[in-house]
Amino acid sequence: MTLLVERPGPLSLVQDRGRPGLGHLGVSASGAFDRGALRQANALLGNDDGAAAIEVVAGGLVLRAAAPHVVAVTGAAGPVTIDGRQVPAGRALRLDTGQRLAVDPPTWGLRTYVGVSGGLAVAAELGSASTDTLAGLGPAPLRAGETLRTGVGRPPPHLEDVPALARTGEITVDVVLGPRDDWFVPAAVRRLLDDPWQVSPVSDRVGVRLTGGVLRRARDAELPSEPCLRGSVQVAADGLPIVFGPDHPVTGGYPVIAVVLDAHTDRLAQARPGQVVRFRRRP
Amino acid sequence: MNVRPCGDRAVVLDCTSLEEAQGWFAALHGQAEVVLGARTVLLRGEPSALRALVERTTPVAPGSRPDATVVEIPVAYDGPDLDDVARLTGLGTDEVVTAHTATPWTVAFGGFAPGFAYLVGGDPRLAVPRRSSPRTSVPAGSVGLAGEFSGVYPRSSPGGWQLIGRTPVTMWDSGRPEPALLTAGATVRFVAA
């Protein structure tokens, strides 16, 4: 069973649950940025939770079926068509031989997930088919003309459509201060929590870069490199925060002022350039 | 050692030295997911359970650790920054090579890229700043210096370390049972080849 990539769009990657537990080797977990959307796609298809799917950044993906498939589209919201006819997201969809599935640029959010019954059959590296864009592990980004093999699917369960994700002009994520909030002046910690932050266009799977006021340090000393997490809010030398994504460096040399709650880091997968992010101290 | 908060799925043990951090790493490795930094240890898991685990754990004392693995790495000392390193350290190029090979190094922690190991404990005269402008591409196997550290680039990547040589040894291979050649705690000896 195969799917042909007719157009990959700006960036389409194979992602699964990633490769956790290898930080001591210098390897981040990687995996789907919006893990909830990956889980939804696989649930709709009756796949295992972490089966490999396509993470599409900013739409533009066109797939053609070389055999009948069942697919599901979750994550960012935007037009999805089969042979030009609009189809619903968040539902198992039949894709007949020769039909084209197109994911257009989303109207809300940034990352769309295209799952297929049986999952993508991609060679694993260190136990995962995820592409780690920083470490250079896993398959290369999808290319036009490439053929994707799929696993053997089960009949999809009868499920209601998954609800669309909450849409709002702002993304709010809860944080725990530390481990290095004491490296900043008190006004910087207040500014982090009180000010709106704009998502920079240079954001990617390594980190969501934010612009806004400068977070001034109380200590100018150099921080010895220390381990980081998905969700670590690192403040680089220019005083601007970067929230680390799934392909973050394992260790970083700048102080981490706060860490986003793990469950809230998925929301940052959908942060579009210019969108406002707010940090709320964990209540 | 202080336990610092690190989100809702980890804590950081803030130590006063690399040796202390290594002692905690050695004591906790296997009981939790542990990542070592230059002065810190990251523990992943539920924070209150991790704090309890740390309470009942005693760090391994330096010197009482079982004999570390020794890895020999042959190096051709012909790197593009060898002359700059000689100038910065006030040593001759031959003396740089002697200093790099005479003292055994220890793998402090991994980071930057899979299989990249930060090596410490070398000759203190070799401490040099990073290049003022990083190279866009450093070949795999390049042996470099930066600050108190030495390291070997496992694959071609951008990098700002001062390059003094190259080795044919494969530092990282995802297909090996232990993909990284150098893991935290190992001893490394560079040999001029």
Automatic annotation (TrEMBL), chain A:
<dbReference type="InterPro" id="IPR003778">
    <property type="entry name" value="CT_A_B"/>
</dbReference>
<dbReference type="InterPro" id="IPR052708">
    <property type="entry name" value="PxpC"/>
</dbReference>
<dbReference type="InterPro" id="IPR029000">
    <property type="entry name" value="Cyclophilin-like_dom_sf"/>
</dbReference>
<dbReference type="GO" id="GO:0016829">
    <property type="term" value="F:lyase activity"/>
</dbReference>
<keyword id="KW-0456">Lyase</keyword>
<protein>
    <submittedName>
        <fullName>5-oxoprolinase/urea amidolyase family protein</fullName>
    </submittedName>
</protein>
<dbReference type="Pfam" id="PF02626">
    <property type="entry name" value="CT_A_B"/>
</dbReference>
UniProtKB/TrEMBL annotation, chain B:
<dbReference type="InterPro" id="IPR010016">
    <property type="entry name" value="PxpB"/>
</dbReference>
<dbReference type="GO" id="GO:0017168">
    <property type="term" value="F:5-oxoprolinase (ATP-hydrolyzing) activity"/>
</dbReference>
<dbReference type="InterPro" id="IPR003833">
    <property type="entry name" value="CT_C_D"/>
</dbReference>
<dbReference type="Pfam" id="PF02682">
    <property type="entry name" value="CT_C_D"/>
</dbReference>
<protein>
    <submittedName>
        <fullName>5-oxoprolinase subunit PxpB</fullName>
        <ecNumber>3.5.2.9</ecNumber>
    </submittedName>
</protein>
<keyword id="KW-0378">Hydrolase</keyword>
<dbReference type="InterPro" id="IPR029000">
    <property type="entry name" value="Cyclophilin-like_dom_sf"/>
</dbReference>
